[in-house]
TrEMBL record:
It comes from Shinella sumterensis. This is DMT family transporter. Keywords: Cell membrane, Membrane, Transmembrane, Transmembrane helix. It is a multi-pass membrane protein. The keyword ATP-binding does not apply. Its main location: membrane.
Amino acid sequence: MTRVQANLLLLLAGAIWGAGFIAQSTAMQTLGPIWFIGLRFAVATLVALPFARWEQMRAETPVSRRDMAGFVLTGLALFAAASSQQVGLLTTTVTNSGFLTGLYVVFTPILTVLILRRRPHWVIWPAAVMASVGIFLLSGGTLAALTVGDMLTILCAVLWSVQMICVGVYAGRSGRPLALSLVQFAICGALGCAVGALFEPISLAAITGALPEILYAGLFSSGLAFIVQNIAQRYTTAPQAAIFLSSEALFAALFGVLLLGETISTAGYIGCGIIFLAMLAVELVPELLRDRRRDMPAEV
């Protein structure tokens, strides 16, 4: 596979995730948000099961209890992130949800300092300011315009960051990323169905009405897109992968306009652009500076 082909696959993953915001939004016309999470991740669990089984057969050692506890923690973080995002979609737009969720690119290095005690690159601080300005403009130029759904989606971005930090720690330490995927999907599916049964009405008609969205989110957003990402990133660089995967925010806005008839103000477009630049700066500036130092001639 060439690097161009790999980047096109990453762009496909971004498009799948971007369209996933549409499915998440329209599913709640008949189904409660927590039930949608439970059923979506139940399908994703079935998708991940054969891959995790294949990984297990090739593994030399079983997953330790310590790593399994980390897998469970990762699943809890994923459920909290998915829940806040899904409930947030009740009172925010697909466009806002797509871009605000992308703030995890900024929040992750900040939380890495707080949780892992690792100092971030200096670019994170101006990027955080840029992202804040972008949120202000996306809200219409007044903080009062931010809905409860917008705030929940910002919380979701923080929780996604926690989940990604957990994945970085436990997937790397255990060497079992597919087992981690299976466990976290299963936890989200079980918790979603249990909490949904307690607090949300359910009926066969509601499930049938949201079945296309459930299958799309379970098979593609939580299954195919992650598999595509894992395959393609073997043939491209991390900065390039970040550019193409972060396109999910742009696809969310595009699909929101084309399929749901949503509109974006001029200030909103500017805000989206600033948030996108903040995400790119966090990923690209450290790599570009590293390459520049590497190319500098050695002193004699």
